[in-house]
Amino acid sequence: MAITTEMIKQLREATGAGILDCRKALEQSNGDYEKAVDYLREKGLAQAAKRSDRTASEGVIEVYSHGNGRVAVVVEVNCESDFVAREASFRAFAHELALQIAASSPRWIKEEDIPEAELKREADIAAARAREEGKPEAVIPRIVEGYLNKFKDETVLMRQKYIRDESKTIQDLYNELAVSLKENIVVRRFVRWELGEASS
Fold it and tell me: Which of 190, 171, 197, 187 is nearest to 45 (CA)?
């Protein structure tokens, strides 16, 4: 398929990538716009991955209160430079994370943060439920895997669907920011309080 300058221009406006990168992405994806966007995103993420070992000690602590003070969230997001820490898109991301945490009550930031004991307990519950429902033993591992994936999607911040756009996850939002800012971005920690909730 012939790659037109209009196609390159459209992709460039959408992604902020260079002209040559956009041309290459369109060539690699045979003119398919969505695949070209994915190609550029993967390329950007490969660059972001190279940056992940750089120290991220700047950033922002975002504080958000919801429902007339019924829910409060504090989230720390780090970056490498104070220049990026002042960047509007970086601060907007921290704010969106606080909203997400207030609305969706995640328990962990990343999948790796879930304690092994917690995963085992959830897997045991899923297996016991499947057996109780009379499911054949051969399909139970698949049922458990599906249950654990759903559990992670609900409880892990980076895997949650973004409350403003369910076609994206928080990881997608993070990826877009890391690629556009070209810095190591770290969601360091968060805490969520709800009125009347027992402390754990």
Answer: 171
